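Dear colleague,

As promised, here are the two records you asked about, laid out in our usual form so they can be pasted straight into your sheet.

NAME FIELD: protein one
SEQUENCE, THEN STRUCTURE:
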Amino acid sequence: MAEPRLPGRLRALTPARLQLGRAGCGLPTSELLAFQLDHARARDAVQMPFVPAGLAKAICREVIEVRSQASDRAEYLRRPDLGRQLAAEDAVRLQPHEADLAIVIVDGLSAHAVHAHAASLVLELTDRLDNWKLAPIVTVRQGRVAIGDAIGERLGADLVCVLIGERPGLSAADSLGAYLTWNPVVGRRDSERNCISNIRPPHGLSYAAAADAIARLLRAARHRRLTGISLKDGIGVLPSHEP
């Protein structure tokens, strides 16, 4: 049996739009409709409201719900700075816990990703951190990555892990990202974080693989007391167990 032609083989390996064909000067109708559907899904993901109510039951842990200073979705999209700041009335609800780790679940630009993947990833991750002291899990509406710094600082955690819905693309409207920061305080730079992205089985990183990578980075961060560009991941680079 002859092997499939190269274009067909490439399309089987990636969700990227390759070799779409053409009808006259335009795309075939099926490809145009598929593009419009994916575009609509991406737009819907950005606008979807975050509903954190079911997370506490799903992960069997205490969950504290807070908001950023963005009053609604429209302001959140216009003012990224407000999404990085914790609402003053909610900040007082976060008390120090002297924890090793704070897990913060943020809607970001895709609440759909958080609804689909956050609880399963948290369960996988906490299974790998048996001896760690965990702060109550915090969920954030209208949040950006950096809001985890304010939350981690309020909770007194050594590390913060922000799980956030990533910016939707035309092939992925439900991608979850994880951002890790040592000694979280307001004003941390993005270069002081480590990121694991595209967590969205079966088309992206699996929960188990993502939890392995996050746990490996967390252990190394605690051992070296840093995160960011000075902390590299990879086989043989970071320890696979507690130092």
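NAME FIELD: protein two
SEQUENCE, THEN STRUCTURE:
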Amino acid sequence: MRQRLDALGETLELGDPPARIECFDISHTQGEGTVASCVVCVDGTMKHGEYRRFNIAGIQPGDDYAAMRQALTRRYEKVAAGEAVAPDLIIIDGGKGQLGVAHEVLAELGLEHLASIGVAKGEGRKMDILLVGKAMKPIKLPGDHSALHLIQEIRDEAHRFAVTGHRARRAKARGRSKLEDVAGIGPQKRRKLLAYFGGLSGVIAASVDDLCRVEGISRKLAETIYSELH
């Protein structure tokens, strides 16, 4: 790991190996349930307790640039205010557009001195290309380069953390809307149904007779619920 950090510092001309690295990624499904992730690596070890997810709101669905801007602003305005530790390197999972947004946000917050790179897909999406510095100089490292391996591991972890957060947010939103769309089901009955069956999947799996066992659910309403959910 020390060799990887040394190699990364040399490759990016940072002067010293980066002790604290933070990496960002965006995940959504056609703009639905957008979540941004920030994972943290300190001295080569992933610090799960310092990971952060940002539920993105108030943007055009699918606007990854706006999502990245919101996540970076929310994270680094605390650094600018002296309320959080600054990283030695910021990794953006994205190309010139998203890295450009990062540069803008950091400049607006007075943090333009923080080092940042983008990780973009090359031709055929088979090779990762590093975009370095204000000029976003592209660097192609050999596939066996230790610095590249470290960057890819951190990037993949940011992707995993973003995807799991997005899926949870999407499932929660879809589940809530499914029951909310059923006529005759208010907040109280919805809570009783979810509590009785242990969640939306249990409600969906329940028969009409099962649904009737929940307090306040008549057979007619149970038939309506079953019909709507199937």
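A couple of things worth noting about protein two: The chain has two domains: 2-173, 181-229. The radius of gyration is 23 Å.

Best,
R.
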